[in-house]
Write a structure and sequence with these properties.
By secondary structure, the chain is mainly alpha-helical. It is 50% helix and 11% strand.
């Protein structure tokens, strides 16, 4: 059995309509996310085989490590994405998360505008992300290219918007901003608040 497995969605495939059609959600979860899970497990097996060699040529690991990082990051971000969404989502956060958004990002409307533009303007494939940056102890909005372009800064994703074409193209064609606008109606602030609390608690982590 592989190390990673495809998580069940916390809702039916049709539950997020009309913002995301059941057809797109099923393809996204059962095909694309499943491919990242398989890719991560396959890469781990291949890395283990290389590790058993008496001597490991550097070139034997370069591609495998990159492939593993790509697929594992895709698995992690998609797992967060599903939990970030809810058919009962929308509105805005309150409490400590709302206070932090006010302090670090100029208020909810300014934050919403920044994350919307960040997601809609990712060059190629990637994600718009609200994250907790532990060194500065602050919220940030970032663009993640592909799946793992920003791992060096060590931020913890709290809210992730998938900007890959497979997430929206069948429904929204090339009008990514319309898709991003609809995502706000699905945001599960309860989940994001839980991740924020975990990330800002000593020893806590906001992983999926």
């Amino acid at each position: 059995m592989g190390t990673y497995s495809l998580p069940d969605l916390p809702y039916d495939y049709a539950a997020l309509e009309p913002a995301i059609t059941g057809q797109i959600l099923e393809l996204h979860h059962a095909k694309h996310h499943a491919a990242y899970v398989k890719g991560a497990n396959d890469s781990l097996e291949q890395i283990a085989e290389v590790r058993e060699r008496e001597q490991i040529p550097p070139t034997a690991l370069v591609g495998l490590e990159k492939t593993f990082a790509f697929n594992l990051s895709g698995h992690v971000l998609h797992t967060i994405f599903w939990e970030n969404l809810s058919p009962d989502g929308g509105d805005r956060p309150d409490g400590a998360l709302a206070d932090a958004i006010d302090e670090h990002l100029g208020g909810f409307e300014a934050f919403k505008k920044q994350l919307t533009v960040a997601t809609a303007s990712v060059q190629g494939s990637g994600w718009g992300v609200l994250a907790w940056e532990p060194l500065g102890k602050r919220l940030i909005v970032e663009q993640v290219y592909d799946h793992h372009g920003n791992v060096g800064q060590g931020s913890t994703p709290l809210l992730v918007f998938d900007a890959w074409e497979h997430a929206y193209y069948l429904q929204y064609k090339n009008v990514r901003p319309d898709y991003v606008t609809k995502l706000w109606d699905l945001v599960n602030w309860e989940d994001i608040t839980r991740r924020f609390s975990a990330a800002t608690t000593a020893g806590g982590a906001a992983g999926a």
